[in-house]
């Protein structure tokens, strides 16, 4: 469908939650390009259906697409975009990878996760390369000087976000496979949270390891929406290393709010063990770092306005050092004999 023939009503765009302001594309991956470097950027944003040829596009101010949109505004150019729906799961995961907007291309990460190059083809109405095997591709143009709004919308936090400023996409073409599959995602369900867990953990791994050389593992737990909290285990070889790891983690993503750093004997993918470390090794008077006035999401409408999730200067971050202190004696953890443990085989204990 091209030009005047475009009709987004032909797609099964879904109304998800009771108080949502309308029907939203939630699993679409939006492609755009940095106007200076030419680097391709892919991200997942929310797109409200606002007319047969119009979609909203809501970007938080610190997201890559927002930086690219501001740069187009400075240059006085329209911003071409393409939203593709339905592809290999690795494509959606790679689309949420984190890196510098001018050099980091999610297409490269997607190829790495797929184990082969992502096959692309030129768009029908925009000068962008789009995934050739996507089920559906929606092409369009954003006027950087035109704004709309959307919301309320059921967010990944489990709360509704209020109305927010959004860009407006003038849709110029829709292409699709024969009998295309429309991929939808429940935005308030943990499937929404989990799709971004691996990319954020990878970014945290690189950031922390580069600054400490002591990282063992990192996890963004579902209890923190795979977004607000991180559990980090390190080989704690010197005082202050845990705080250094925590600071490196917080610097990785604006919305990360709480970082718990534990010793290497704690499995960060077992929340019971992390909580045990906090309750037995953490002393708030000594081991808590509070960082006020940092950018990041906050659900407090008093501090952040009616939308409940606007980034701003009042977000407070926390680092909890739940590692055993090195400067004084500390009780010994009860563990089985390593020799006996190594000899135990569950197969030998299995009943006939």
Report a brief summary of the structure.
25% of the residues lie in helices and 28% in strands.
Descriptive report:
- The radius of gyration is 23 Å and the shape is elongated.
- The chain contains eleven helices and 17 strands.
- The protein has an eight-stranded antiparallel β-sheet, covered by helices on one side. The protein has a five-stranded mixed β-sheet with strand order 13-14-15-17-16, with helices on both faces.
- By secondary structure, it is α+β, with helices and mostly antiparallel strands.
- The termini are far apart.
- Helix 5 crosses helix 6.
- It is 25% helix and 28% strand.
Q: What is this structure's SSE topology?
A:
Blueprint: E1 24-25, E2 29-33, E3 40-44, E4 47-51, E5 54-57, H1 64-75, E6 79-85, H2 89-95, H3 106-114, E7 120-122, E8 129-131, E9 136-150, E10 153-154, E11 160-161, E12 164-176, H4 190-195, H5 197-212, E13 215-219, E14 229-234, H6 241-250, E15 258-263, H7 271-281, H8 284-287, E16 288-294, H9 301-304, E17 315-321, H10 338-343, H11 346-349
Parallel strand pairs: 14-15, 15-17
Antiparallel strand pairs: 1-4, 2-3, 2-6, 4-5, 5-12, 6-9, 7-8, 9-12, 10-11, 13-14, 16-17
Helix pairs in contact: 2-3, 5-6
């Amino acid at each position: 469908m091209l030009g005047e023939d475009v009709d987004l009503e032909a797609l099964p765009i879904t109304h998800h939650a009771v108080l949502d302001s309308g029907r939203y594309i939630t699993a679409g991956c939006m492609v755009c390009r940095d106007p200076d470097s030419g680097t391709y950027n892919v991200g997942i944003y929310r797109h409200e259906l606002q007319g047969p040829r119009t979609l909203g596009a809501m970007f938080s101010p610190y997201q890559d697409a927002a930086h690219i949109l501001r740069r187009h505004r400075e240059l006085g150019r329209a911003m071409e975009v393409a939203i593709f729906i339905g592809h290999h799961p690795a494509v959606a995961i790679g689309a949420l990878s984190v890196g510098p907007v001018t050099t980091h291309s999610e297409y490269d990460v997607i190829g790495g996760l797929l184990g082969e190059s992502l096959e692309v083809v030129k768009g029908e109405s925009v000068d962008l390369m789009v995934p050739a095997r996507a089920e559906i591709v929606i092409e369009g143009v954003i006027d950087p000087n035109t704004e709309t709004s959307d919301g309320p919308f059921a967010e990944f936090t489990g709360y509704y976000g209020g109305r927010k400023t959004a860009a407006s996409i003038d849709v110029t073409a829709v292409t699709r496979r024969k009998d295309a599959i429309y991929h939808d995602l429940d935005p308030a369900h943990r499937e929404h949270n989990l799709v971004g867990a691996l990319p954020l953990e990878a970014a945290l791994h690189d950031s922390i390891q580069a600054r400490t050389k002591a990282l063992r593992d990192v996890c963004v737990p579902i209890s923190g929406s795979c977004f607000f909290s991180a559990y980090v285990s390190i080989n704690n070889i010197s005082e202050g290393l845990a705080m250094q790891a925590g600071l490196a983690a917080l610097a990785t993503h604006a919305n990360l709010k709480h970082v718990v750093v534990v010793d290497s004997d704690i499995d960060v993918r077992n929340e019971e063990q992390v909580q045990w470390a906090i309750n037995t090794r953490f002393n708030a008077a000594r081991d808590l770092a509070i960082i006020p006035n940092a950018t990041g999401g906050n659900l407090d409408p008093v501090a952040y306005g009616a939308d409940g999730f606007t980034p701003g200067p009042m977000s407070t971050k926390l680092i909890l050092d739940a590692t055993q202190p090195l400067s004084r004696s500390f009780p010994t953890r009860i563990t089985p004999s390593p020799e006996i443990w190594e000899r135990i085989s569950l197969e030998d204990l299995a009943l006939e």
